[in-house]
């Protein structure tokens, strides 16, 4: 299960709404729970769900702005995909939720310089709290 | 044997200094005017300059940066007839090795000179280390940024903790990454700890990891960032946000390189190199007990202060070129040119958000000029264009006022004030027209390069 989310607190429009983009490959189980938690954390802001990782990566190329937050639930394959567009991700604040915790995956994850790195197994309380603090700082 | 330049118009003293330096086994040369001093420093390969303050054609403290910037980058010892605390502070801030009063010079000089030359020899030996510095997207070649890169190169060669300071958006994380990339630890992890985004309740478990069942939701054990940085670099971003309780725990890790995961019984070890960054004044935080003095002492073994963008506007063109070409690449566009007015308008703005704000502004301009092959000032956001327009109106008003000498003699400015304001404006235009190229500027103005450098230094301008 891979779940990628992206939203943009810095480039908020005049009305103060944030643009939020989500990709959930199979919106059920863990991915669905994560999407729900993040949906609650970002409150009233608009969400867009993508149908495939390619669509999300393409969207990153055109829609990502300085300071945007990108949240990715990732295994090694997803990390490899993200490393391929690392230069674009440089301008964002990246939160990584790893589906497998081992030395190799962690080393790959740090090459992307995430602002927060965690595992799948804590009901996403950490992700929700960190996201809340990031949004608070950006508001 | 070191090469020493004595810039002083006091013949008796220079004779004594020459004799003294010769006795120490060095070669010394005298310049009795500032003009000759600057010229000789540029042409000769001097290790040390003994610089007088009161010279017939200029103040040594004003010319100190010019001496520090010549190719051989000499150490400078200020020798002054009348010492004063403000002068001493200015000398040290401008990079002087020390500040000696003339009555003490024969007694104190040998020791200061020996130390300065020893420092220089060690610095030169160390500089032979890495051949090419990996800049990690640090753009610019201004004196200020080059100075920071020198510090970066030195820091990368050792394992000492580094504190990077500077306003938001000046590139602190880029410098931290570059220190790691140029260090012996580069093959291992560079681990970012975003202290500003971590809620207080999560900091310890994030840094030190936790055992299974240590708290609600800890379904299995997780390593902390400190362990993940083992052999590599741990980067504490916005370290000024670290809560005081965590500071205590972190200090222990720094002192002993061992820690205990949350809910764990065993002490673990980690060999990481620490780099921290902040836009806060940590000394001030210490004074209000918001930051631990002992932790600050540990963090600032080496300090790199990054200049705000407005203090290195000469890098604006290369930064703009870099960001625009990245945008062209990202959106699959042909290379875009800049209109003459584009960089001029960017230069008139003072960039409170620094390089990050510049990058955002250029994104805005890029999307406004998406189908145009050239970026013009009118593609920039209104607030920047308005400021540029206001500055231009103000400048033309000032010029007009300066040219129209009032009939009322009482309202006339002093001659020196009038001349200086006109001189500065001329130099600014000259630099803008020649894109800061001093050789070209000296040809246009029909001034010798030395004279032009003196004028630029006088008005705090850089070619």
What would you say this structure looks like, in words?
The complex is a heterodimer of chains A (139) and B (463). Chain A is of the alpha/beta class and 139 residues long. Chain A has a domain at 6-22 and 33-40 and 67-77 and 88-130. Chain A is 43% helix and 24% strand. Chain A contains 6 helices and 6 strands. Chain A has helices at 29-41, 53-63, 76-84, 86-89, 103-111, 125-138; strands at residues 3-8, 19-24, 46-50, 69-74, 93-98, 116-119. Chain A has a 6-stranded mixed sheet with strand order 3-2-1-4-5-6, with helices on both faces. In chain A, strand 5 (93-98), helix 5 (103-111) and strand 6 form a beta-alpha-beta unit. Chain A is globular. Chain A starts with a strand and ends with a helix. Chain B is of the alpha/beta class and 463 residues long. Chain B has 3 domains: 3-127, Rossmann fold (3-Layer(aba) Sandwich), CATH 3.40.50; 143-307, 3-Layer(aba) Sandwich (Rossmann fold); 312-458, Orthogonal Bundle (Helicase, Ruva Protein, domain 3), CATH 1.10.8.60. Chain B is 49% helix and 13% strand. Chain B has helices at residues 11-23, 34-43, 60-68, 85-93, 102-127, 143-156, 172-181, 200-208, 225-228, 244-256, 282-287, 293-299, 316-330, 340-347, 354-368, 382-403, 415-433, 438-445, 449-458; strands at residues 3-7, 27-31, 48-52, 54-55, 58-59, 75-80, 98-101, 162-165, 190-194, 233-237, 258-259, 268-269, 273-278, 302-305, 337-338, 374-375. A 5-stranded parallel sheet of chain B has the order 2-1-3-6-7, with helices on both faces. Chain B has a 5-stranded parallel sheet with strand order 9-10-13-8-14. In chain B, strand 11 and strand 12 (268-269) form a beta hairpin. In chain B, helix 2 runs parallel beside helix 3, helix 6 (143-156) packs across helix 7 (172-181) and helix 13 packs across helix 15. The longest helix of chain B has 26 residues, at 102-127. Chain B is globular, with a radius of gyration of 27 Å. Chain B starts with a strand and ends in a 5-residue tail after the last helix. The mean pLDDT of chain B is 87. Chain A binds chain B through residues 10, 61-62, 65-67, 87-88, 90-91, 93, 101, 106-107, 110, 113-119, 121-123, 125-126, 129-130, 132-134, 137, and chain B through 137, 173, 177, 189-192, 194, 196-199, 201-202, 206, 216-220, 222-223, 225, 228, 326, 330-331, 356, 359-360, 363.
